Amino acid sequence: MAAQRNLLQLSFVIHAVVYAVVVGGLQYINHATSSSFNWAVIVAWAWGIGLAAHGAVWLMLRRGPSRAT
C-alpha cells in the first residue's frame, strides 16, 4: 500500500510540474503574439481543475483506509 501511495504522490508531482511548464509556455506564446485576448487563462483554469482533483485524491488516499468501525 505504501508503494501505491508513493506512486500516486510521484504522479501528482509530475502532473504539477508539467502543468506549470505548459501553462507558462502558453502564457509566453499568448503574450508574444500580442493577443488582446488572454486565452491561456482558460487552459490554466480547465487544467487546474483536473490538477486540483488529482491533488484531492492524493490527499485522501495518503491517509490510508478509514478506521471507523
Question: Quick gist of this model?
Answer:
The chain is an all-alpha fold and 69 residues long.
Structure description:
There is one protein chain. The protein is mainly alpha-helical. It is 78% helix and 0% strand. Helix 1 (2-32) packs antiparallel against helix 2 (40-62). The longest helix has 31 residues, at 2-32. It is elongated. The two termini are 21 Å apart.
Structural topology:
Layout: H1 2-32, H2 40-62
Helix pairs in contact: 1-2
Name a few traits of the molecule.
single chain; 69 residues; elongated
Q: Assembly type of the shown chains? A: single chain
Shape: elongated
Secondary structural class: mainly alpha
- Distance linking N and C termini: 21 Å
Average pLDDT, rounded to a whole number, is 87
Measured by DSSP, the beta-strand proportion falls in: under 5%
Q: The biggest beta sheet, please? A: none
- Helical proportion, percent range: over 70%
**Total of DSSP H or I helical runs spanning 4+ residues:** 2
The count of β-strands is 0
Give the SSE order as H and E letters. Answer: HH
Cα Rg: 17 Å
Low-confidence stretches: none
